[in-house]
Specification:
Largest sheet: 5 strands, mixed
Shape: elongated
Radius of gyration: 40 Å
Order of helices and strands: HHHHHHHHEHEEHEEHEEH
Number of domains: 2
């Protein structure tokens, strides 16, 4: 950060928004000053005299130039370079100096009201130049004050002595204003640079924490995978070792081979589930009828439900449409329904329902039974977290990933002592007829 008075407040590159705000504010101040001075001159013509046509034209041209500058600034798509900004500011300073002095010549009064315009170059210099340059602009503004008094005396031969005192006071005020504005601007830019630096450091820290968190997550995931794979591999190994012993009778050997086959199937399912979680396929979204999707999921899960003496019910309007990948949404809902069936007591009902709310489709899977333990709630969507004796812990994790990949979300919306409800929020489909979807 450079705050050397000789170099000016070169702190950070100016953003487009900051550039537009600064230059637009200065342009509006110039426009306001020009319009106000002309109105005052007109309203108090008895004191100042009527503005001459030349003065009116000159002020109108200056007003038009400032208006064009304002429009140009607002239309820019990138900020000016520091050199370009210095050129623009220098031109504006010269314009105000020439305008103020020429207006004084045209009004031909010792107390030239148009010298108010000399304050604008000082403010502009404080925003763009170094302290020394700002002081230089202030000196020029004060010199123009005294130059006009000398010129007025040369043209008219006399002037009140108090005019010299007023010119000196005005020049002193110019100096105070210039230094004060420069210090305030410089301090703000220094604070801005410090803030940008702090944000950059925080961003770097956040990136390091994210990397560390990812590494920690990979470590936890690897540990969980190793733990889940170890058990079926150990069972396969011990079963095959027992089956290949010479003293084992055929019936026991067949049982050992059956155990090895079942564990191999379990290991294959675990691998498939993990791949589905780790590398979900891109969703192929289209307009789908929610009633058809839920009916299909209910049919798939009915055999499992019958074995548990659980009923599966569907409650959804026929005309409800959803923008989704049907295969992915069916897999998501099937995981939820299977979990609900496993968690339900005999003769209970698992309900699949759907409705449209706030421009979105809400699909709910609800079951009777004990709720999820409070200590387990924050882990339910984590991979390999399960409370089932032989569960993989990937069902809810996969379901959550599918919902997010399709622009939706999966949440646990009720977890009471006798009722558990998972809610899936998906984008709704509008302006598509039900006949078009079914055909």
């Amino acid at each position: 950060m450079n705050t050397d008075p000789e170099q000016g407040p070169r702190l950070i590159p100016q953003s487009l928004g900051s550039f537009k705000r600064q230059q637009s504010t200065l342009a509006i101040l110039n426009l306001t000053a020009l319009a106000t001075l002309l109105l005052i001159h007109t309203f108090f013509a008895n004191h100042f005299g009527l503005p001459t046509p030349t003065l009116v034209i000159m002020l109108a041209v200056a007003f038009l130039l400032r208006a064009v500058e304002l429009v140009w600034v607002q239309a820019r798509t990138s900020p000016l370079t520091r050199f370009g900004l210095q050129i623009l500011t220098s031109g504006s300073i010269v314009l105000n100096f020439v305008l103020a002095f020429t207006a004084a010549l045209l009004t031909n009064r010792p107390d030239a009201q148009y010298f108010v315009l000399l304050a604008m170059p000082i403010i502009e210099a404080a925003f763009t130049f170094s302290l020394f340059s700002t002081v230089g602009v202030t000196i020029v503004a004060g010199a123009l004050n005294f130059l006009w008094i000398v010129l007025y005396v040369w043209r008219h031969g006399h002037i009140r002595p108090s005019e010299y005192f007023e010119a000196g006071t005005t020049s002193l005020i110019y100096g105070f204003v210039g230094v004060l504005v420069w210090m305030l601007v410089n301090d703000l830019r220094a604070n801005q640079a410090e803030l940008v630096q702090n944000i950059s450091e925080l961003e770097q820290t956040r990136e390091r924490l994210l990397i560390e968190e990812k590494l920690a997550a990979v470590g936890r995931l690897s540990s969980a995978i190793a733990h889940e794979i170890r058990n079926p591999v150990a069972m396969i190994s011990s079963s095959l070792a027992t089956a290949t012993r010479g003293a084992v009778d055929p019936e026991q050997r067949a049982m050992m081979f059956d155990i090895a086959a079942k564990e191999a199937t379990r290991l294959e399912q675990l691998t498939n589930d993990f791949l589905a979680y780790a590398r979900p396929r891109p969703p192929a979204k289209s307009a789908n009828n929610v009633a058809d999707l839920l009916a299909y999921v209910a049919d798939l899960s009915r055999a499992r439900a019958d074995s548990k003496s659980v009923r599966v019910a569907v409650n959804v309007p026929d005309e409800l449409l959803c923008d989704c990948d049907p295969a992915g949404l069916q897999q998501l809902l099937l995981n939820l329904v299977m979990n609900a069936i496993d968690a339900s007591p005999p003769l209970a009902t698992v309900t699949l329902s759907g409705k449209e709310t706030a421009g979105r489709v809400l699909i709910e899977v609800e079951n009777r039974g004990e709720g999820i333990a409070p200590d387990d709630l924050r882990h339910i969507f984590e991979p390999f977290f399960t409370t089932k004796p032989r569960g993989t812990g990937l069902g809810l994790a996969i379901a959550h990933t599918i919902a997010r990949s399709q622009g939706g979300d999966l949440t646990l919306t009720e977890n009471g002592p006798e009722r558990v409800r998972f809610s899936v929020i998906m984008p709704a489909t509008a302006e598509v007829s039900l006949e078009m979807v079914r055909h």
